[in-house]
Amino acid sequence: MQKNIYNEQTGISYTLQGNYYLPDLTLPPEEEKHIGVWGQRHLRYLKQHRRILYTNLLTSGRLNSYLADINEQAENMFLKLVEQMAEHEGISEKLKSEHSMEWIGRMNALRESAAEIVNAKVIFA
């Protein structure tokens, strides 16, 4: 038996593995983009709860760019929310210089609230 065969009609080559010929399939090439913490969270969500979408993105070669876009959207939304919420709550640089521990506590609470909103609207949507 031949180790490798090529099917002219389909354009697929096959390799002998044990007693079976398995197709030599590879994923399409994909441009590597940075995926931050938001993209990683969304990837974990896709793998656990949206398996079909995850598989479709992976096999079409669009997963990395999709996750990079989600990461960018979530990061922009998070930064904008933190800025707007800090302005609304009156958290300023003056408070930071005069009462740094209070500023840290309020900013941490504000960042947690913004993260919850981003998770609900972008990551787990």
From TrEMBL:
Q: What domain of life?
A: Bacteria
Entry protein name: TnpV protein
In terms of InterPro entries, this protein maps to: TnpV (IPR026989)
